[in-house]
Amino acid sequence: ENNAAVTAEMVDDVARKHFPPCMRNLYDRLKRDSHLKHFGRLQLGLFLKGIGLPLDEAIVFWRKMYGSTMSDDKFNKEYKYNIRHGYGQEGKRTNYPPRSCQQILTQNQPGTQDTHGCPFRHFSPETLSSFLLSTYPTLDRSSNDLKEIMDSVKNSHYHLSCTRVFELTHGIKKGEGLGSGESVTHPNKWTERSRDLEK
Ligand code: SF4
């Protein structure tokens, strides 16, 4: 397992190379809008904790992402607490684990204005295919791969679609998944495996 620490400065590079679709979507939207709604912040924040972003770096990361759209005062008063809370440093001091695919697929269903959730389950087919093609340029629009991914989505086999995207974007043979046929069941597993493969 790759638990090498991630700094705020490294997140962008790790995101481009090693984030699964759900987290790429959240991260790209955060970058574009300097904003994420509550459940999106939670989903991405716990994921980042899981990939090894320590609390002090998380504070640096979120402060940078909000940029000038938010005053230091507002950030310190309203957002820092929530970040610390996610790391078990406030309130009941629960160290919340990153969300699994199952939780992301079934809990807190996103509304139309939301960015959290799983793209395979929560995007329309048109949005999903254009998102995948623009996010993972190695995916081939004209090959059968995209059609296969979209067919699995139609049959509600979201894990299969996600696993196939992992294989295709990492040069892994079909059926090998994350290794020995393991399919994607946790966004953090995608990233761990992807970082391992780079070594
Ligand atoms: Fe994220 Fe899991 Fe959906 Fe893949 S299947 S995009 S890892 S929630």
TrEMBL record:
Residues 13-190 form the DNA primase large subunit C-terminal domain. It comes from the Eukaryota. Transmembrane segments: none annotated. GO terms for cellular component: alpha DNA polymerase:primase complex. [4Fe-4S] cluster binds at C22, C101, C118, C162. Residues 175-199 are annotated as: Disordered. The keyword Protein biosynthesis does not apply. One of its GO terms (molecular function) is DNA binding. Residues 189-199 have a biased composition (Basic and acidic residues). GO terms for biological process: DNA replication initiation; DNA replication, synthesis of primer. Keywords: 4Fe-4S, DNA replication, DNA-binding, Iron, Iron-sulfur, Metal-binding, Primosome. Belongs to the eukaryotic-type primase large subunit family. DNA primase is the polymerase that synthesizes small RNA primers for the Okazaki fragments made during discontinuous DNA replication. This is DNA primase large subunit. It comes from Tremella mesenterica.
